[in-house]
# Entry
Amino acid sequence: MFWNKDVVESVQNKRNLLKFFDLTEEVESLLMERMTERSYSKGDTIVREGEPGNSIFFVASGTLMVIKNNKAGQPILISKMVAGDFFGEISLLVNKPRSATVIAADDSLLFEIEKKRSLVFLISSTPNLKNALKEACLRRIENDKRKLGADVVID
# Structure
C-alpha cells in the first residue's frame, strides 16, 4: 500500500497524542481508527459551555483558549491548550454538558473521537485510559475553582 506524506504525518500525530495514556497497541490502534481530523481557524469556536458533550478532542497543533463565564456572566480565560493537550473528558465521564467554551487562538489541528464510536466502551475497558481521563478531569475542576473562586459547582 502506498501512503502519502499527509497520511503518514496524520498517523504519527495520532500516535504521539495517545502516548500519554500508556495504552496497549490494540487499544491505541482502535482509538486511532476512530479519530477524525478537524481543522479550525483563528477565532473559531470549537465547543460552547452548556452544549451537550459527545466527544473528546486531542490538540495536534495550534493554541486554544478555554473560557468559562463567572457568576456575573463575564467570560474568564481559564487556561490555554497546546499540542499534546486534550479536552472534552469531563462531559464524557460525567455525562454533563460542556463545562467551558474552547476557541482557537490561532489556526489549529485537532483530532476528535465521538462518543458513539465506541469511546465509552474503550474507556471502561482500559484502566490506564480511564484513570488518566479521571485525573485530567479532577485537575481541570480544581483549576476552574481556583480561577473562578467558588463559582464552579460540581455535582
In short: The beta strands are 36-40, 45-47, 55-61, 64-69, 75-81, 86-87, 101-104, 108-114. The helical segments are 5-18, 25-34, 89-94, 119-125, 127-148. Residues 94 and 155 are 9 Å apart (CA to CA).
